[in-house]
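Researcher: Please predict.
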Amino acid sequence: MSDIPLNPKHAPPFLKIFGFTEAIYNEVHKTYTCYFEPTEDLTHSAGTVVQGGFVSGMLDTSMAQHIIFLTKGEMTGLTLDIDVKFYKPCAPGPVEAISKIIQFGKSIAFTEAQLFQNGKLIASATATNKLAPLKI
């Protein structure tokens, strides 16, 4: 089996704001996908466009959760910088954020993520992450 589904019960509570539904790690492609269903509560423009900060948060979440998954919950990735590009408006409804680890060092990880809606790329991000112990 190439996909490993992850239990949303173990997700941080703030992810409910984004409409987090599930996450899957793909062993073959080494990608981590977070699925979200943002609602009109996260929009502007008469309920039609999800605000960019929430879009950025979904991308950032996918990259950070990828690091947590790869380190078996021992480390998290504190975002030192993030560069987000917006290509199309994000509407309320299902989206998927697919992240990849570009480079994983002893104290820094470089990550990237893409956000898709209805099969179309709507935003992408790259980030530099400081690896830090995850305190549970």
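Model: The longest strand covers residues 120-133.
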